[in-house]
Write a structure and sequence with these properties.
34% helix, 3-stranded antiparallel β-sheet
Length: 105
């Protein structure tokens, strides 16, 4: 009996998350793209922006890894969205978090 070749298809998912403004989408993109996936993680995640939409593409070796990565991403996304709503993301300056040289410790 001849052996059949096993075709392994990657498990993939693409999420499109709309925001109220392009600025809010940019804030979410900058916040969520900071953390790199650990090397032991078998999921690849890429983020991109399309105007006011955050596009996230996941690719994983197993469905359970894909599901875990998406669930974890949604937890971070919800926290990010709550923070934008609470602090009004439009007022965030480009240099937020930077300390000036005139500040004393």
């Amino acid at each position: 009996m001849p052996q059949q070749a096993v075709v392994v298809k990657p498990n993939e998912s693409t999420l499109r998350v709309p925001f109220d403004t392009p600025r809010h989408a940019e804030i979410a993109y900058r916040v969520l793209s900071v953390d790199q996936e650990p090397r032991r993680n078998f999921v690849q995640k890429t983020l991109s922006l399309e105007d006011d939409v955050l596009v996230v593409h996941f690719s994983a070796d197993q469905v359970k890894n894909l599901r875990t990565a998406i669930s974890s991403f949604f937890e971070c996304l919800l926290l990010c969205q709550d923070t934008i709503k609470l602090f009004g993301g439009d007022e965030i300056k480009e240099d937020a978090g930077a300390q000036s040289s005139t500040d004393s410790a």
